[in-house]
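Lecture 7 notes: from sequence to structure.
We start with the chain below.
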Amino acid sequence: MNQLGLIIISILFGATGQVLLKAGANRLDGLNLSLSKLVPSIISILKTPAIIIGMITFAISSLLWIKVLTKAELSYAYPMVSFSYVIVAIAAAIFFKEAITLNKIIGIAAIVMGVFILNR
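Predicted structure tokens for the same chain:
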């Protein structure tokens, strides 16, 4: 697989992991990370399938990213990671009914244009 394909797949896995973590976090009944509640909180996290799958998805993304770094210049590959913001914003609107505001649209457009300019 070529560099761009690996970058895209890594970004998709990372964004998917983020969406899954949010879905899992929405199922948690708050999260108290104080020392006295740390162990029960960790157990609660580990019993949430969306969080576990999200973490596995992030791990896959990380492995793919390491592969990308063996082949591509960092100054080429890393700016493309910002596309994950675009993917997550769209997924958040679809799955979590988050608003897509004018500011978000402008930000997404700036990200897309910025990556395009950096990689010309």
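Points to note: Residues 42 and 62 are 22 Å apart (CA to CA). The mean pLDDT is 93.
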